[in-house]
Structures are given as structure tokens and as C-alpha cells.
Amino acid sequence: MSLESDINSLVKSVDLELFDTSIVSEGDETIYRVSVLSTEVENGKRKPISLDACVDLTHLISPLLDVTPPVSGDYRLEVGSPGIERKLTSLKQFAMSVGEKVSLNLKAVDKVRDKLRGTLKKVEDSKIFVEVDGEEVSVDYGEISKARTYFEW
């Protein structure tokens, strides 16, 4: 099994869902970041995860990383939410974000639209369905150059 699948098993064991793992550098520090979402939905939106849940998950993941470090050298483990505004880089992440507001930059396929902003309605195979101004628009995942969720204040 891969490190990510082992982490995914631990995440599921505490009733959360793995959104992403990444290695980032901030200053002279290396961070192994594990981003998780709640599996609970309320009023069509995912419930936030608690700090206690992040701490508990950190205590579960840390011993695994002692045996199978994600990077060579020193690093810091960070477990948390990916945030209300986050990049979407895979079909899985799109599926996990259904019901949220999304902003899509499209590759220059037909020059009709190069950006879409609306509510992510569903994901079917490689098609992303977004409601824009009351109209459902489908976009093939391969036509998206950049995507993120956003929050309207």
C-alpha cells in the first residue's frame, strides 16, 4: 500500500474524508500537509471539522510517518481543512465539492467562454456540471485549466 492509501484508511477511521496530501515549503521549513473534509452534510453543505478532530488525526498519522516518512530530512506534519476557498485539481476533488461555488478557467477550446463561475451541481465521468445564472453548463474536465472553490461574502 502507498503512504496516501494508508493515511486515507486512518482518515476514514475517524469519519473524515481525505481531500489531499501535499508537501510545501514555507521559508526554510518543509510541511507535510494532510487536508481533510467532514463526511457530515448539513443544509446541503459539509459541516466544518473541529480542531479536536485534527489533533486526534494528527496523533494517528504521526506514528505512521515515523515509520514511513513522506520526505527525507526534517518536516512538520500539518492536519487540517483545505479551507473554504481551495484549488480543485482532480475529479475526486470536484466530486467532494458538489454544492459549492466554483470558479473555472477554461482552455481556449471554442473562445465562447474562458471562465465560468457558479454552483457545482454534479460530476459524471469526466463531465463537470455547473449552474451559471440559472442554466446548467457541462464542461469536460480536460477543458479546465484552473479551478477553485470560492465563497461569496
Please provide a written account of the structure.
The chain is an alpha+beta fold and 153 residues long. Helix content is 22%, strand content 42%. Strand 3 and strand 4 form a beta hairpin. Helix 1 packs antiparallel against helix 2 (51-67). The model has no long low-confidence stretch (mean pLDDT 92).
Concise account of the structure shown:
This protein is of the alpha+beta class and 153 residues long. Helix content is 22%, strand content 42%. Helix 1 packs antiparallel against helix 2 (51-67).
Main attributes of the structure:
single chain; about 150 residues; alpha+beta; 5-stranded antiparallel sheet; 3-stranded mixed sheet; 3 helices
Write the layout of secondary structure elements.
Elements: H1 3-13, E1 16-26, E2 29-38, E3 41-42, E4 45-46, H2 51-67, E5 76-80, H3 91-95, E6 101-106, E7 115-124, E8 127-132, E9 135-140, E10 144-149
Parallel strand pairs: 2-5
Antiparallel strand pairs: 1-2, 3-4, 6-7, 6-10, 7-8, 8-9
As a percent range, the share of strand residues is 35-45%
The mean pLDDT is: 92
Q: Number of DSSP helices? A: 3
Span from first to last CA?
42 Å
Overall radius of gyration:
17 Å
- Spatial arrangement of strands, main beta sheet: 9-8-7-6-10
Secondary-structure content class: alpha+beta
Stretches where pLDDT is under 50 for at least 5 consecutive residues are none
Q: What does the overall shape look like?
A: globular
Give the topology string: H per helix, E per strand. Answer: HEEEEHEHEEEEE
Would you count the extended β strands for me? Answer: 10
Largest sheet: 5 strands, antiparallel
Percent of residues in helical segments?
10-25%
